[in-house]
Design brief:
The structure is a single chain. By secondary structure, the protein is an alpha/beta fold. It folds into four domains: about 375 residues, Zn peptidases (Aminopeptidase), CATH 3.40.630.10; about 100 residues, Alpha-Beta Plaits (2-Layer Sandwich), CATH 3.30.70; about 90 residues, no CATH class; about 110 residues, 3-Layer(aba) Sandwich (Rossmann fold). Helices cover about 35% and strands about 15% of the residues. It has 22 helices and 31 strands. The longest helix has 21 residues. The radius of gyration is 28 Å and the shape is globular.
């Protein structure tokens, strides 16, 4: 009785979400901002010994990103929490553990479970569920909840994209009751990626991905994780595992079995709670890497994606007469089937129902993790051990003598973000007839996350899957190829032996040692094969230095550099700037004593970056421009229509978009007028006039349709109109043949 009274008193001290936010989360027509949800988490943290709140970093726009650690009061004692976290990491990295050590750690450890919300801000049910789910997990006194708190350390991320959560909530409030209430947020809700932020989970370009990835793959390494999304394959109410084929063969079988077990538990719990409409084995596969739930597969973690219906705070009635008769694979949407046993029959739907489905699915995963606590922990060690035993005869070497070693070092940085073990040679070593210099990096395939090594450093071979025998290719769920070395232009030599070399382990790689080879009589030379030479050139131009581009190979004191070499003639202060930039970017800057025969003066171009609203490629392009120090202005549809472009810009970049989408934009009435319409035919004509006046238009991907269709250029898109049965390479990495004499291809050579 004393225990019950004490518990009740403690529970009464814990604030309910509505007492802080002002309404019950998931109420129709209401969306809480990230600030409101974070405020609730802080108050919950202060009121309960079952939760610790930590800041895991800042967002792209400077907001504090929070993570809650929920468990029993005893588990959250500092010494205990530290021990359980370290046990999880040791088991996940357990290739060196003995059998008895692994068993003991698993027996005495607590499984780590993860639930994140709000990665896609317009999928509002997720981040609106976060307050109530945290409250329930902290305060519930059911035997199940107590067991979960005793057996698990649960990590809750209330919003993977806090900036977007606030933007979407404020947009909805601003338009509530008006014609654009359900129009959707019109711009990128993450600074650079928008909705494409779920494609960054092996590259870690975004601040939010780094914040979360540090917890997922370094600090805690949870055994199971739930990545909450919307919306389900219509008309299903929630999409759950098991997923579709194909299966990436690099993923450990225990991971796949774990995904299926959790999916079955979710389906069973949903049915027991009379929540019908759960669908499995549709749309989502286990092939591609790079998503928040797929990247964990390559770290021996059970990654769960759910997609719940109705991503809106506005209730709606769904008429079953309008439902499609079948799903994409021909399965009936109205008749029970093995992976859709309780078809949803339509009717009224509210945000609160979507939130309830998310909570049920999350509780189901936590129950599995709690029941299988010891097995999950020991399984992590087993998978790590398997990775360490296999691949012992394979080593990947990243040579230090490749032209663009600074970018090679960035590749190593990506590998380390993935917690892939990397070594650096402290002395030269020889393999066969190849001599590798000191500073070269080695990645041994035999390591706990062997799956990640295999997947990122080898070409993917996507299976030939047809819709029917002899028919067209079955469309993949996502990308099919993504080999990291190919994408980054880095030489990685795969050697079929356990290379012997004197090495040290790499924690985080440092920028290569830069050097300036003496004061020149004519100019400093920057190698065009090095990506970061462009960043240095931009900095020098901004400082007022004179920079030239050589049309032919350049002789320096230390050897020859190819055509396209950047030449910087000294003036007061140049020496210091060049030395600083060499150190900052790891550049080897040579001295040139005689002026080459043909050089062209460079000026910083006035760049206009076209933004037709909510274009992912515009955001990623902006990230690259920012990273390499290019100055630019955003160019809107209104600006293009206004004309006089040559007076303002030297170069206009058109990110990936179709000709029609650029010309027509969004339909009138779909959004406020300032967000609708495209550049129109007048804007297209203005772009053509810009080119005719000497300006340069750079098109990315499908944006090439615009000059091809409207400028009369002698170029043909040979793929236009070709059926998919003849030409279909979705999501692939291609090799390009280049004209090395063209200045645009400077530094690339004949292939890229």
């Amino acid at each position: 009785m004393l225990t019950s009274a004490t518990t009740a008193t403690a529970s009464n001290r814990v604030p309910k979400p509505e007492s802080v936010i002002g309404w019950t989360p998931c109420t129709d027509y209401k969306l809480a901002t990230y600030e409101q949800i974070a405020d609730y988490y802080r108050k919950l943290d202060k009121a309960s010994d079952r939760m610790k709140l930590v800041e895991i970093g800042k967002t792209s726009e400077g907001r504090p990103q929070l993570m809650a650690i929920v468990s029993s009061e005893k588990n959250l004692k500092d010494a205990n929490l530290k021990r359980y976290r370290e046990s999880s990491v040791r088991l996940s990295q357990g290739d060196s553990l003995s059998e008895s050590e692994a068993r003991a750690l698993a027996k005495g450890g607590k499984a780590i479970a993860w639930v994140d919300f709000g990665i896609h801000s317009t999928e509002v049910a997720g981040h609106q569920t976060a307050p109530q789910f945290a409250y329930d997990l902290v305060t519930s006194e059911t035997s199940e909840a107590r067991e979960i708190r005793d057996n698990l350390i649960t990590l809750l991320v209330p919003n993977v994209n806090p900036d977007g959560g606030t933007k979407v909530a404020e947009w909805y409030r601003q338009n509530l009751g008006g014609p654009y209430q359900d129009a959707g947020y019109p711009e990128l809700y993450q600074k650079y990626a928008g909705h494409d932020n779920n494609r960054d989970w092996y590259m870690f370009n975004l601040q939010e991905t780094q914040n979360v990835g540090r917890q997922l793959f370094h600090e805690w390494i949870p055994q199971v994780m739930h990545n909450v999304h919307q919306t389900a394959v219509f008309p299903a109410r929630i999409s759950i595992p098991p997923y579709e084929d194909p299966l990436n063969p690099n993923i450990h079988p225990q991971v796949v079995r774990g995904v299926n077990i959790v999916g079955d538990a979710m389906g069973q719990r949903l049915e027991r709670e009379d929540k019908g409409g759960a669908l499995a084995r549709q749309s989502y596969d286990i092939w591609w890497n790079g998503g928040a739930r797929t990247a964990p597969y390559y770290h021996n973690q059970i990654g769960i994606l759910t997609e719940t219906a109705h991503a809106s705070a506005t209730p709606r009635v769904y008429d079953p007469a309008t439902f499609p008769k079948t799903f994409a694979d021909g399965t009936s949407t109205s008749e029970p089937s093995v992976f859709y046993p309780s078809p949803w029959k339509g009717g009224e739907w509210h945000l609160s129902q979507s939130c309830d489905y998310i909570k049920t699915a999350s509780w189901a995963m936590l129950r599995v993790a709690s029941d299988d606590r010891e097995a999950l922990l020991y399984g992590a060690a087993q998978m790590a051990r398997d990775g360490g035993r296999n691949g012992a005869s394979t080593t990947y070497v990243i040579p230090a003598d490749q032209a663009d070693f600074p970018t090679a070092t960035k590749l190593v940085d990506k590998l380390r973000w993935n917690n892939i073990r990397v070594e650096r040679a402290v002395k030269p070593f020889t393999v066969g007839d190849r001599r590798y210099p000191a500073g070269s990096y080695l990645v041994r395939e035999a390591q706990p996350y062997r799956a990640a090594v295999l997947d990122l450093l080898n070409p993917q071979v996507y299976p030939d899957r047809r819709l029917y025998p002899g028919g067209p290719l079955e469309p993949p769920y996502d990308i099919t190829g993504y080999t990291l070395s190919f994408q980054m232009g880095v030489t990685v030599n795969k050697l079929d032996q356990a290379v012997r070399a004197e090495t040290v382990a790499v924690d985080w790689p440092t920028v290569p040692t830069g050097a300036v080879a003496g004061a020149p009589k004519y100019a400093y030379a920057l190698d065009p094969r090095v990506n970061d030479s462009s960043a240095a050139v931009n900095a020098l131009l901004a400082a007022g230095d004179k920079v030239f581009h050589s049309s032919a190979a350049v002789t320096t004191r230390t050897g020859k550099l190819p055509a396209g070499t950047f030449l910087v003639t000294p003036r007061p202060g140049t020496d210091a700037r060049v030395t600083r930039l060499a150190t900052q970017f790891g550049l080897s800057i040579a001295a040139v004593d005689a002026k080459p025969a043909k050089v062209t003066a460079l000026v910083a171009p006035r760049i206009g970056l076209y933004d037709g609203f909510n274009n992912y490629d515009e955001g990623w392009t902006r990230l690259i421009l920012d990273q390499f120090g290019f100055q630019y202005e955003k160019l809107t549809n209104a600006s293009v229509r206004a004309g006089d472009l040559r007076a303002k810009f030297d170069t206009i970049v058109l990110p990936d978009a179709t000709y029609n989408s650029m010309r027509n934009g969004r339909a009138a009435g779909s959004l406020p007028p300032e967000y609708t319409g495209g550049m129109t035919d007048a804007g297209v004509a203005n772009l053509k006039a810009f080119v005719e006046a000497g300006g340069t238009v750079v098109t990315l991907n499908k944006a090439a349709q615009l000059p091809i269709k409207a400028f009369g250029v002698p170029v043909k898109d040979v793929t236009e109109g070709v059926p998919e049965t003849t030409y279909n390479i979705p999501g692939s990495v291609l090799n390009l043949n280049l004209d090395a004499s063209d200045p645009v291809a400077a530094g690339f050579g004949p292939n890229a």
